Amino acid sequence: MNSHLNTPTAAVNRRPWPYPFWVAHRGAGRLAPENTLAAFRVGAGYGYRMFECDVKLSQDELAFLLHDDTLERTTNGSGLGGAWSLAQLCALDAGGWHSPIYAGESPPTLGQIAQFCIANHLALNIELKPSPDLGYRTGQKVADEAAQLWRNQAVPPLLTSFDPKALEGAMAAQSALPRGLLIETIEGDYLDVATRLECVATVCDHTALTPEAVRAIQARGMKALCYTANEASDVARLLAMGIDGIITDRLDRFAPASR
Fold it and tell me: What pLDDT is attached to residue 259?
């Protein structure tokens, strides 16, 4: 049994928090085709220093960026993204759906995103997006690949997921990589799940957050983060609660240095 399973969560989470407050959703929100290198370039152009993206496994078990289970919405492919080889995926157009200037932009690999982030000193939140029934395996493989890509880097990627199985796989494979539990509502035993998974953060839909929930998350030694706040009134409400980080689509509205 790995010794990390016996480490109290509060002790693990006393490490300094290395991540910026503002996080660019899927690279650049709606300003560029989501989960592409072009989106990351746009987001960096707005001054953002941390990015969120969605990562799953190709048919040959290599990590690439895609939000949906299927390819139709954001590429010119069809069917399950996880049923295509990485070479086939990289030949797709993942930009033309957004606007003509991005036509030909391919779905990037995690390696390409890592190279961009490391070269530009940017932090990354990798949301584990398993294909159906591949939660644990996705967590394992993506964590292993991320650990190799970010080896010797001062700030590792933050791995998050709605799927506890994916986080379990990541914890088993690479316990040192920080994890966060994504939730839609403040219900049930989410705090116990996040504690069991030794998470450093709980990331909640901003519309469901309350001041009491933020305090409860922080009392467990975790940071309280939220997605996807795009209105100034919502940001003001979240700041008043003492939120620790905000994921947003509106890179053109919120300066990443502001609080």
Answer: 75
Return the structure tokens found at 254: 């919120």
Q: Which residue in 25, 98, 121, 206 is the catalytic one? A: 25
Give the tokens for residue 108: 């990037």
Give the number of other Cβ atoms within 10 Å of residue 55's Cβ.
28
Taking only the tens place, the pLDDT of each residue in 180-212 is: 999 999 999 999 999 999 999 999 999 999 999
CA dist 91 → 65, 86, 133, 242 (Å): 13, 9, 26, 44
67 is catalytic: yes
Quick one: CA torsion of 115, 118, 120, 122, rounded to 10 degrees?
120
Catalytic residue among 4, 67, 121, 206: 67
pLDDT in tens, 111-149: 999 999 999 999 999 999 999 999 999 999 999 999 999
* Residue 25 annotated as catalytic: yes
Q: Measuring CA to CA, how many Å separate 156 from each of 18, 40, 256? A: 9, 18, 20
pLDDT in tens, 7-60: 334 444 557 899 999 999 999 999 999 999 999 999 999 999 999 999 999 999
